[in-house]
UniProtKB/TrEMBL annotation:
PANTHER family: TRYPTOPHAN SYNTHASE (PTHR48077:SF6), TRYPTOPHAN SYNTHASE-RELATED (PTHR48077). Residues 134-469 form the Tryptophan synthase beta chain-like PALP domain. It comes from the Eukaryota. The keyword Endoplasmic reticulum does not apply. It comes from Zingiber officinale. This is tryptophan synthase.
């Protein structure tokens, strides 16, 4: 799609950066692979080692087109390769390690197995692959015009997940979640949504399998998202509501509560737990969600290999951590194997900085305290973030797996104010054409910082961006920015002090 003209140039540049190697594929090819091939350096160009599926080496020639790769057939479970395993989830009442049957009222058996699995690869069901093919493989695009505008020697690529029916990475997990529920004979699922991206993704997935879908929506900022959910047959209820104990409790304390993702999760979990025939779905944070999202990174490894590129920096935005983990975990595997060594950087909003300003502790995933306790970076389960435009990043916690990887030092994190993010988004839209969702503007703005840094130092780094969705339903945010009415909402450490004090004390 993009790359024909640039392939030779980038290959040459990549070879320069790895002077000990003789072709652009060096970084991806182990010595064994090369000696197996026994090819002359000139012939080796365009031949790559398949890294992603653990079938051992599979060598094949490519035409150098990053978009002629196959849809991966397995998800990757990073837990299998971590030198230290993440701490277990705990029962919310007893504080004892959670048992699989504790989760049975909420999730179908296969998803519970995936949640606690230590298998390295988990096969993707054939029917799910068939649905993935509606929009996968998603494009890997070189942002040549943005590079030119920035006058940077860096090469910038973005992996674009906005081609899915719902316009983001979320259907990557919505489809298998709906499928496993349907397989187990479940008829109804209930979930929460913040900005509406998850609700619409699950509504789409449920429509494929005839499941009833109920969405608890934390605020009504994106009216067209609600209509998408309804078009796909879902029922949408505002949250907080008076039909659940959780909602009533919140409204008693604050009748004007604007709601939050954490509150909507409490309501959805309560509905699922109270109904035998109803299960719960979550759009981020949990191990099985991040597992499903690794299809992004697996595919991207193949695409980069096909064009002989090696990322030096990988940047993604983090709300609950699923698009970030989905892209980066397969790269962390390669890092642990010593095959690649990219710097991996999470970017969070300055107004909701769970990694950079939160603490690493056991906390609830919801506001009321009904979910299991998870060891994660958190601002406190009753922290209600300011209403920034990146609604998908307004969550008090961070995926336990991303938190653990951060603690282990395999990645770093920064936070950015939203006006810088939208400034970056406009540069991106006016050079690359795509209008990003407010969430990935964080990754784009951080990539622009990195590219400008390269301009100063003259480094020809390869920067890879997780461009996880489009912003077609977020134009009201763009309107605010374009009219000059967008302000940066400061993180209030007093507010966080109060919510951090409410984190349960776990005696180990
Ligand atoms: C939901 C969403 C996010 C935030 O969730 P993560 O789990 O951190 O990925 C970010 N971007 C988009 C486009 C989303 O829909």
């Amino acid at each position: 799609m993009v790359l024909d003209a640039s392939v030779m140039a980038s290959a040459a540049a990549a070879a320069n950066r790895h002077p000990q190697g003789s072709s652009s594929t060096t970084a991806f090819c182990s010595t064994t692979a090369k000696s197996l091939l026994g090819l002359a350096p000139s012939v080796r160009f365009g031949v790559h080692e398949k890294l992603s599926h653990g079938h051992g080496l599979r060598i094949r020639a490519t035409s150098g087109d990053s978009n002629k790769v196959e849809v991966p057939r397995q998800w990757y479970n990073l837990i299998a390769d971590l030198p230290v395993k993440p701490p277990p989830a705990l029962h919310p009442k007893t504080h004892k390690p959670l048992k699989q049957e504790d989760l049975s009222p909420l999730f179908p058996d296969e998803l519970i197995k995936q949640e606690v699995s230590e298998e390295r690869f988990i096969p993707i069901p054939e029917e799910v692959i068939d649905i993935y093919r509606l929009w996968r493989p998603t494009p890997l695009i070189r942002a040549k015009r943005l590079e030119k505008l920035l006058e940077t020697p860096a090469r910038i690529y973005y992996k674009y997940e906005g081609t899915s029916p719902a316009g983001s990475h979320k259907p990557n997990t919505a489809v298998p979640q709906a499928w496993y529920n349907a397989q187990q004979g479940v008829r109804n699922v209930v979930t929460e949504t913040g900005a509406g991206q998850w609700g619409s993704s699950l509504a789409f997935a449920c429509s494929l399998f005839g499941l009833n879908c109920e969405v608890r929506a934390s605020y009504d900022q994106k009216p067209y998202r609600k209509l998408m959910m309804q078009t796909w047959g879902a029922r949408v209820h505002p949250s907080p509501s008076t039909v659940t104990n959780a909602g009533r409790k919140i409204l008693e304390d604050d009748p004007m509560s604007p709601g939050s993702l954490g509150i909507a999760i409490s309501e959805a979990v309560e509905v699922a737990a109270a109904h035998e025939d109803t299960k719960y779905c979550l759009g981020s944070v949990l191990n099985h969600v991040l597992l499903h999202q690794t299809i992004i990174g697996e595919e991207c490894l193949e695409q980069l290999a096909a064009i002989g590129e090696t990322p030096d920096v990988i940047i993604g935005c983090t709300g609950g951590g699923s698009n970030f983990g989905g892209l980066t975990f397969p790269f962390i595997r390669e890092k642990l194997k010593g095959k690649l060594n990219p710097l991996i950087r999470a970017v969070e909003p300055a107004a909701c900085p769970s990694l950079t300003k939160g603490i690493y502790a056991y906390d609830y995933g919801d506001t009321v305290g009904m979910t299991p306790l998870m060891k994660m970076h958190t601002l406190g389960h009753d922290f209600v973030p300011d209403p920034i435009h990146a609604g998908g990043l307004r969550y008090h916690g961070m995926a336990p797996l991303v938190s653990h990887v951060y603690e282990m030092g395999f990645m770093e994190a920064i936070s950015l104010p939203q006006t810088e993010c939208f400034r970056g988004a406009l540069l991106f839209a006016r050079t690359e054409g795509l209008i990003p969702a407010p969430e990935p503007t964080h990754a784009i703005a951080a990539a622009i910082r990195e590219a400008l840094h390269c301009k100063e130092t003259g480094e020809k780094k390869v920067i890879l961006i997780a461009m996880c969705g489009h912003g077609h339903f977020d134009l009201a945010s763009y309107e605010k920015y374009l009219e000059g009415n967008m302000v940066d909402l400061d993180f209030s450490s007093e507010k966080a002090q109060a919510s951090l004090a409410a984190i349960p004390q776990i005696v180990p």
